[in-house]
Amino acid sequence: SEYDGVVASLVLSYAEHWDPFKQAWTQKAYRGALQEACRILRPNGQFIATVNVPDPDFFRIARESWREYLTCRGPRLIKNASRMLAFGRWLKECASVGRYHYLPAEEVAETLENAGFSIVTWKKTYADQAYVFSCRK
What we know:
This protein is α+β, with helices and mostly antiparallel strands. It is 42% helix and 28% strand. It contains 5 helices and 6 strands. The strands form 2 sheets. It has a 4-stranded mixed beta sheet with strand order 1-4-6-5. Strands 2-3 form a two-stranded antiparallel sheet. It is globular.
């Protein structure tokens, strides 16, 4: 099957692959996911993806959401924010050893082009902690 569009929201950074011969994490699954997204698109199909910035500041995301804490859902959101901060520390530790891929925008764009995409554009999103990429097959 072919599709007119594919969306990947904050998932590509977590495509992990352990190479038992190198005894190291690699970008094999990450690059494979991008190649597969390109493969299933029709010619001129659009791919939109969000990925974390290098060294994401999860506290900044929580801080930028402060208005939401004042709503009736506030207590639940505060609890979720504290969980997010703890989980964010673990994610960053995994990224520091290559398990996850918090890459500079230029490197993501190059990887997209190597996977077969063109007209690659990007901008930062909420709290400047993620990029949104748009490209065509």
